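Materials and Methods. Structural model of Oxidoreductase molybdopterin-binding domain-containing protein. The 171-residue sequence of Oxidoreductase molybdopterin-binding domain-containing protein from Paracoccus denitrificans was retrieved and submitted for structure prediction as follows.
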Amino acid sequence: MNRATTTLGRRAFVLSGSVAALAPASPLLAHADRAMLTITEPSGRVRELRDEDIAALPWQELTTQTRWTEGVQTFRGPFLKDVLTSGGLSRPDLAGRNLLMRALNDFGIVVPADDAWNYDPILAREMNGKPMRVRDKGPLWLVYPRDQRAELQNAVMDERWIWQLFEITVL
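The predicted structure was written out as tokens:
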């Protein structure tokens, strides 16, 4: 499948309302003690990661510009690959798979799982030294090292920067 077909398919899926049909009640109303990120693995196993689980993973620092902020920003959080593999999945388990990523506002995007190893994006929990709040694209924002990799500086890759991330389903 070529890139144009993948992008068209992804947009059609998101626009079709299929993502909303998968959603339980809005997580915007969730309590603070609930999971920050839910991961559904190919086996159907569901993992719920709380803020302390995210904090316990090794964090990375990434300084880059974004299309949605002014100037260079510094982000901190774990690599996406570390989050995905923290429950026992391995790179071979995820190779060639896709990740349906959902935001608090029910926006969804399908991202190749291989991006986690090919580009080293992080799940940013902090921006410029401050924890990210929902109103600031938090609590989790998938951030790619855009300034460090020319191939990440295009509209197709920019679509993958999902903020207010709360759920990943491995397809």
